[in-house]
Amino acid sequence: MDYKQLNDEYYNVLRSGEVPILSCKNCGYSFTNLRTTCPKCSSDKLNVRGAKEGVVYSYTIIERGLPFTAVLLLVDINGVRVKANYLGDPKKLRIGLKVRSKYVKQELIESIVFEPAE
Amino acid sequence: MKVINETMVDASIVGFGFYYEKKVEVPAVELFKRSIIEAIKMANMEKDEIDGLVVTAVPGTIDNSHDTGIFLINKVASKVGINKLNYFDYVYTGGSSIVVGTYRAFKAVESGLANNVLVVGGGKGNLLKRIRSSMFESTIKNYVNEGVTYYELTIPTIEFYPTSDYALIANRYMREHNTDDSGRAMIAVKQRENANLNPKAIYRGKLTLKDVLESPMVSYPLRLLEVTNPVDGALAILVSKNASKSSISPIKLMGFGEATLTIPLAERENILDTPVKHSVRRALNSLNLDKIDYYGIYDAYTIMVLLEIEGIGLADNGKGGEFVMGDSFLPTSSYPINTSGGSLNVGQVGFTSGGVVLAEALYQLAGLAENRQVKDARIALVNTLGGVFDHSATIVLGVE
Ligand SMILES: [Zn+2]
């Protein structure tokens, strides 16, 4: 897929508050890193879709090494994983928690974070 | 046509030197030199006899430059005063580099590329630690840091790579296997017991399971005493076709295997599925684990050791904690592991635990482990990791 077109589609989905998921039209593999080719079969026939809800597959609360505490998640979206930060109630945090994505922008960096969906 | 096999010679490790300090104010190449001098001395060789050099360093641990490849090789060679080299290699597979480099040195000697090949890996762990903390300070405001890892175009995240990745693995491990922290934390306790037998360990003193579980949280569920701390130093290993002058019994290569996962952590179907079993299987070949007298296990984080124990086959998946609780780790136990105390107690020399675990296996095989010597240690298996289970390299070494 053309990088510019892919990048535009990716960021359109991201700005709508959803996680951009890339799928390979050749082998069906889906992934969330922005790549111009499929890492399984190297096909460049990709499409981009969005997904909003997932389940916490694993998490960690980072208390040292950074100037503040941050929560990092691996979220499972029907078998597709994404790594992102969590900005919800720390007391609700657990593996298996249903989470919903949200668009954030801080200075020039655009990203997706998760909050509890339940 | 098998030209190379016709000239195949018998190679062995004839000397090694392991130099490290908690922190030293000398250039990194000076650390390389000190370890090399020790290795050459143990081998009873002259530096002019060295005709091959394999170097590895974690980028950022060498002063005032990001030198890699031939630039660093030449810098090290000229520091030591080695002027005629026939074989050069620069290896970088992360924490497993020194093991991969050692294997390549054996192959270089066996195939006749060179006669006496030095492998050296290390650097200033403190230097990279300092660079990393200033990086966090300058970039954190922009909601980005190293979290945008070498895979580049991920959704930007705030993370503490690679610690937070290993924490994600440790948390998932407890969930899948329905365990608590104790088996994993016990690794730190067992290794500290070993460190108390090693006068050169930087961290010593009594340590209980309670101490580990009550140490400050770094990245849940990993606590401070489960995480290694970078220090300065280097390991040098001399592989030669001539073992007759050496002051140690020649250490032979019995097996080697490596394996990688080509996709990043976030995309792995099961983050507990590591490449360790593949590299170990290749390294063991037809050898059984009951022939192994000593284990060196890469230990930057306790969770690595736990999953390596399972990958090596010392315990079933999910049962690594039970194995740790049993008769293991101490030199007198059924399964001596990381008898120096590992990098959790020696420190992570040059920002990698590979040299620490490999060096101790060499001390054991050479019979130089003093009061932590494993009786009749003839065969050692050393497993090392690069990245977040991105690479695993296993070497099996033995003495007659
Ligand atoms: Zn594909």
Model description:
By secondary structure, chain A is mainly β. Chain A has 1 helix and 8 strands; from the N terminus they run αββββββββ. A 5-stranded mixed β-barrel of chain A has the order 4-5-6-8-7. A 3-stranded antiparallel sheet of chain A has the order 2-1-3. The longest helix of chain A has 13 residues, at 3-15. Chain A starts with a helix and ends with a strand. Chain B is of the alpha/beta class. In chain B, a hairpin with a 2-residue loop joins strand 5 and strand 6. The longest helix of chain B has 16 residues, at 28-43. The radius of gyration of chain B is 20 Å and the shape is globular. Mean pLDDT of chain B is 92; it is low at 1-5 and 137-152. The A-B interface holds A 14, 19, 31-35, 39, 57-67, 70, 72, 74, 81-85, 95, 104, 106-112 and B 136-137, 140-145, 151-160, 163-164, 167-169, 171-172, 175, 216-222, 224, 262-268, 271. The structure holds zinc ion. Zinc ion binds next to loops of chain A.
- Helix and strand content put the structural class of chain B at alpha/beta
Overall spatial form of chain B: globular
Largest interface (CB within 8 Å) is between: A-B, 36 and 42 residues
| Helix share, percent of chain B | 25-40%
Radius of gyration of chain B, whole Å: 20 Å
What distinguishing features does this structure have?
heterodimer; A: 118 residues; mainly beta; five-stranded mixed barrel; three-stranded antiparallel beta sheet; 1 helix; 8 strands; B: 400 residues; alpha/beta; six-stranded mixed beta sheet; four-stranded mixed beta sheet; 13 helices; 35% helix; globular; disordered N terminus; binds zinc ion
Task: Give the topology, please.
The complex is a heterodimer of chains A (118) and B (400).
Chain A: H1 3-15, E1 19-24, E2 30-31, E3 46-51, E4 53-62, E5 70-77, E6 80-86, E7 98-106, E8 109-116
Parallel strand pairs in A: 6-8
Antiparallel strand pairs in A: 1-2, 1-3, 4-5, 4-7, 5-6, 7-8
Chain B: H1 3-6, E1 12-21, H2 28-43, E2 52-56, H3 69-80, E3 87-90, H4 97-110, E4 116-124, H5 125-139, H6 163-177, H7 182-195, H8 209-213, E5 217-219, E6 222-223, E7 230-240, E8 252-260, H9 276-284, E9 294-297, H10 302-312, H11 320-325, E10 328-329, E11 335-336, H12 342-346, E12 348-349, H13 354-366, E13 379-386, E14 391-398
Parallel strand pairs in B: 2-3, 2-4, 7-12, 9-13, 10-11
Antiparallel strand pairs in B: 1-7, 4-7, 5-6, 8-14, 13-14
